[in-house]
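Chapter summary example.
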Amino acid sequence: MQVENINPYDDSRHKSEQVREMFDSIAPAYDFMNRAMTFGIDKLWRRAAVKLLANERHDDILDIATGTGDLAILLARKLDPLSVTGVDLSEGMVEIGRKKVNAAGLDEVVTLGIGDCLQLPFPDESFDCITCAYGVRNFQNLLAGYKEMHRVLRKDGMVVILELSTPRSAVIRPLYNLYTRHIIPNVGRLVSKDVRAYSYLPESIAAVPQGAEMSAIMVKAGLREAKHIPMTFGTCTIYTARK
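The structure predicted for these 243 residues follows.
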């Protein structure tokens, strides 16, 4: 099944509406669950993604599906850009992110707001680079989302995508499946009180295009030099491409 057809809730609303509701619901528990689910390795994955932009032009950065702002804050701290703009569907997530930006003293650099990845509220060629961490599998239309990235990206600019993925190792995969399909949903229900959110997670990871298939979609959207870099036994993948 295509990832666009994997929804958080079993109703007739568009995926984007369901995703917004889900993240509003789990926003208070989101950061805790991220650390717990990945044993803190998600921080290393973000750092690896940011390093890829260190030698690229990065005055103006767009972080799509910015959530509570972890990647936006890291980009501002490590790359010293003129601006980092983060957009997300969920007001609940963004509100937490704004508090974190303020606490980090980065209000003059990092701006977080509400925005739809399929209709980004920016003119063509507004950004030097674009990032998205753990968000593309939530897009209502993956190809259209990448086309929007291409539209607002400046010539020769780079896209860096972090996304969870399924390990291929015959040794690792059974342990991974046990963890993501049973342990995470049960812990998630206890912490977030949302009975579907952490069941949707493994379902969407299993369905999202991975490796060369994801890179091919980026190329179809108009991007070039698409590459994929597996991380931590294939549980996460970094995708890069440029305009």
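To summarize the output: The helical segments are 15-38, 41-51, 70-79, 91-103, 142-152, 172-192, 197-207, 212-220.
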